UniProtKB/TrEMBL annotation:
It comes from Paramecium primaurelia. The keyword Ligase does not apply. Residues 1-24 are annotated as: Disordered. It is a single-pass membrane protein. Pfam families: RAMP4. It is found in: Endoplasmic reticulum membrane. The chain crosses the membrane at residues 36-58. Keywords: Endoplasmic reticulum, Membrane, Transmembrane, Transmembrane helix. GO terms for cellular component: endoplasmic reticulum membrane. Belongs to the RAMP4 family. InterPro entries: ER_stress-assoc. One of its GO terms (biological process) is endoplasmic reticulum unfolded protein response. Its main location: endoplasmic reticulum. This is Uncharacterized protein.
Amino acid sequence: MPSAQTMKLRNKINRNNINKQGKVPKSLMKTEEAAAMGPILLGVFLFVVVGSAIFQILNVLSNSNEL
């Protein structure tokens, strides 16, 4: 159960919405846009991941020939 102070604060915030008649936003909280991963950052990420996978495969193959 919210406290009396919280209820008064929410009533004060929403009191002005009565006169807006349907123009009230769905949420009073500000939404932040998600940071999109750019194509350059995606390319660097794929280069590191794929490059390290290829390097690991070559390393395993070269070590298996020594046995």
